[in-house]
Design goal:
Blueprint lengths: L1 H18 L3 H28 L51 H11 L6 H5 L11 H15 L4 H14 L3 H6 L2 H8 L5 H18 L8 H5 L6 H12 L9 H10 L7 H9 L7 H14 L18 H16 L1
Length: about 325
């Protein structure tokens, strides 16, 4: 019995082992399956090429709580930007917007200056030339008066120019005058020793390079010793009758910043700021108007804001008047 059962068990095990696939059979079967899948894929691709393409309608994608659609499979359409050659569009310079109420402020300034009784009106640089002299000499004297006027009151500049004219204010005569004598003539203008050197060097350049006349451009005027942009623009107006820019001295610089017309730290920055918005037809009068106003009303210290017609339109004046009224109430 036991031997018979054992023999039956052995025969059953042999049948199981015989029916299992070998390693080579398993490889063969897997390769056949891969080939079958590839064949099926090729058949589908062939059918896809031959079959007409049908438009697919995409279902709307629900929006998220932030309003952004989540659809990573959909790509945005690429937009091609075409350029027209290598041309670069010209950018037009846009001037700054003028300050609020500037025209009313200007009208008030004219009203306060209508009597023309400030020092600049009778002794300014445009009043320092000998009108009986030749045009070249008048232009030379206009340039010298501007050079002397730097950080100097009009009364002192005018007096110095009168002494120079009595001495003989021509290019040849100034070159023959000693530095010591020239210093005595222009004293007490500010920095008179430096101005003696500048006048001598400039006069020599005018004789040798400009045939006894002064330059007719701002650029060439600025190349002369002791001459800056303010003097050059004023000289172009006074000597040549051409308005090339706004002459900005200490008065114009102070007042325009107080008015809020510009916000600058240097007179040259003030000039550029004013020219950015002020119409050119006002350039010729703004220097003379503001200089006289600065000499009489808008003083460097203790400005007369209470009597100024612009005290409600000027930020500086409005704040000062407010402070004065508070002090009056306390007293």
């Amino acid at each position: 019995m036991r031997i018979c059962a054992f023999n039956q068990f052995r025969q059953a095990m042999k049948r199981i082992i015989r029916d299992q696939p070998t390693k080579s059979d398993r490889v063969t079967r897997s390769s056949r399956a891969v080939k079958a899948l590839e064949s099926e894929s090729d058949q589908k691709s062939e059918l896809g090429k031959s079959a007409p393409k049908s438009k697919t309608v995409e279902e709307p994608v629900p929006e998220t709580s932030k309003g952004v659609r989540k659809n990573k499979s959909v790509k945005r359409e690429h937009i091609k930007i075409e350029s027209e050659g290598d041309e670069v569009p010209l950018v037009k310079s846009v001037k700054k917007a003028p300050p609020k109420d500037w025209e009313q402020v200007l009208a008030n300034l004219r009203e306060m200056r209508k009597n023309s009784d400030a020092p600049v009106d009778s002794m300014g640089c445009d009043k320092c030339q000998d009108e009986t002299a030749s045009p070249e000499v008048i232009r030379y004297q206009a340039l010298l008066s501007l050079m002397l006027s730097s950080q100097t009151k009009d009364q002192i500049t005018h007096a110095a120019m009168l002494k120079l004219q009595q001495h003989g204010c021509t290019i040849d005569n100034i070159l023959e005058t000693s530095d010591e004598k020239l210093g005595e003539l222009i004293y007490p203008v500010s920095f008179w020793k430096n101005k003696v050197k500048y006048i001598k060097k400039t006069t020599e350049l005018l004789k040798n390079e400009y045939k006894g006349d002064i330059p007719k451009t701002v650029a060439n005027l600025c190349k002369l010793p002791g001459v800056g942009p303010k003097m050059a623009h004023l000289c172009m107006k006074t000597a040549w009758g051409e308005v090339t820019g706004i002459g900005v001295d200490t008065h114009v610089h102070r007042i325009t910043n107080r008015l809020g017309w510009v916000k600058s730290k240097t007179p040259e920055d003030t000039r550029k700021g004013l020219e950015d918005w002020l119409p050119k037809e006002y350039w010729s009068e703004v220097n003379h108007l503001l200089v006289g106003f600065g000499q009489q009303v808008c003083l460097p210290t203790k400005p007369q804001c209470v009597t100024c017609l612009n005290n409600s339109l000027c930020p500086f004046g409005a704040s000062l008047v407010k402070m004065e009224s508070k002090k009056g109430k306390k007293n």
